[in-house]
Every structure is written in C-alpha cells, then in structure tokens.
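Final report, Chapter 2: Outcomes

The project's central promise was a pipeline that accepts a single protein chain and returns its three-dimensional structure in a standardized token representation, suitable for archiving and comparison. That pipeline is now operational. To close this chapter, we reproduce one record exactly as it appears in the project archive, with the input sequence first and the structure output second.
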Amino acid sequence: MGALATGCSAAPGSSARPATPATRSPVPTARPRTAERLPVGTIGGYAVAGHMLRLVDRSRVRLGPRALPTTVWYPVIPAAAAASGRLARGLFPLVVFAPGYTACEDIYDPLLRTWASAGYVVAGVDFPRTNCHLANPDENDLVNQPADMAYVIRRLLAAGRGPRGFLAGLVDPGRIAVAGQSDGGDTVAALVANTCCRDAAVRAAIVLAGAEWPPMPGSYFGQPTPPVLFVQGDADNVNPPALSITMYQADTRGLRFYLDLFGVGHLTPYVGDGPPEPVVARVTVDFLDRYLAGQRRAGAGMRRDGHVAGVATLVSGGALPP
C-alpha cells in the first residue's frame, strides 16, 4: 500500500497553490522553576536558632558507647523565602566545632553563633572524656576524638537528608568544614592532616591554638590537605606559637594561612569580647566564605580583615609573621 498523502494537490496545468496544512500555535508550557540558594557570608545576615542533639556512637565496641551531646546553631530562613517554595536542598555549609580540654562548646557560643548568623550550620560537640562536666577528665582520650567528629558529621548529614526535623534540607553534604580550639584544634589537625584520621568529606579547617598530638597514630602532612587557617595568640603559654607555626610550615601540600594575634593568650581570643575577637570572627568567616562557600571575593576580604594595626596580621603560603 502506498503512503497516505496529506493535504491536496492542484490538477495539472492549474495555477492553484497546494493547500498548507493547518497549524496550531504552540501551547505555552510552564518552565520548571530553578531552586534558589540563600546567600552566605554576611555576619548578622540571619537570625540564629539552636537545638541540642543527644548523639551516642555505639559503633566502636572496644570503647563502649560514646555520648556526644551536640549543640547545633543554624540560620533561620526568612519567612518570605520559606513561603516561596523555591528553596534548594542543602542550603547552607556545615561547620563542626571541637572544644578544648575540660571545655564545653557553650563557652564558644558567641563565635559559633556569629558563624551561623553568616549562613552556616554550626555544630559544637562535647567530647565524652574531656568535657567540662567531668571530675576526672582523660586527655589521653584525644586520640579517639577525630572519629567522634567524623561520626557527628555523618549524623548531621543524615538529618539534613531527612524529610522532617529542624535540619531537613539545610545541610549541604558537599560543603563541610571543621574547626577547634586547643585540644579541639589538635583533634581537627588530625582529622584533616594525619594519615590515622583523614576524613575526605572535609573541605576546609580552622585550627585555633592547636598542635600536633604526639600520641596520635599515623603521620602528619604527608598527604594533600584541604585549606587550613591556623589562628594563634603570640602570648599563648599553653599551646605556644611554635606549635602552630610548626603545623603551618609543615602543611606544604595545601593552602595554608596563619593569623597572628598580638599579645593575647590561649583562650580569650575565641571566647572574650576584647579587641582580637572581632578580628577572629571576621577572618574566620572570610575563610569559610572563600574556601567552603566558594566566594572568590572573600579572599581579598580575608587579607583586609586579617591586618589590623596593633591587633593582628595574616600571612600565607609558609611565610612567617613579622
């Protein structure tokens, strides 16, 4: 059978033109709306809410259950944005924080809340054998704290993937940083730079008055590291500046920065309200903006905010502070 003809043809010799099949105007179709991310990087840009998670890691049988109460500070999504229905999942980067020996996360709350107000989900972990509530803390347990941090990261990512709960849709699994002070800084250094404990999910790290922990198994800085910001008071007599400088100069396979705070000690630059604290807040947010949120302009902000006459200076690439 021949093919079915469409339209009609003119008779031979006729001047009539072939009829054109009728066409319809295309029906407009609604474009799928692109999910929107909310801005990150302005201190005070968001109201901040807090939530306590009572996490327990039972996976390391030899150690027994490890209670890891974790306070999560997170940006409050503006009502107008929430009502739009166009928000992406994984809105905000995640920063997990490690307190120092015999400390709990609450003494660092002003700094952690500042990070959250700039658009970061921030989780402070209280470690089971070195926290502020213990009569007999055990500093030797520090060797187990990098794995505690990795466990908390996994749990927070799972909560962010869930359909319900205060973290649902908030945590971006591709943008994770860790930070810590003193022994918490030692914990973070192991998590990003020691072969014993390296967590490939971590994209950036902030080490506040930290050091390499000699009992930690494995070796430091033999493999590529994520960008690291070392922050150190030059009058610190608990973790002296030489310990931070040793790490900063050993970190030759990653981007590294050193913020030198003039005339301050071990704890006050991170929990007080004197002149160094606003510098620490601004430079750490600049660093997170650049190397976690991916904002190139934040690199210039970091260099600007890290140089304050009489207060602080910032160096990078292995160069020593003056």
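Archive annotation: Residues 48-316 form a domain with the Rossmann fold fold (CATH 3.40.50.1820).
This record, like all others produced under the grant, will remain available to the consortium after the project formally closes.
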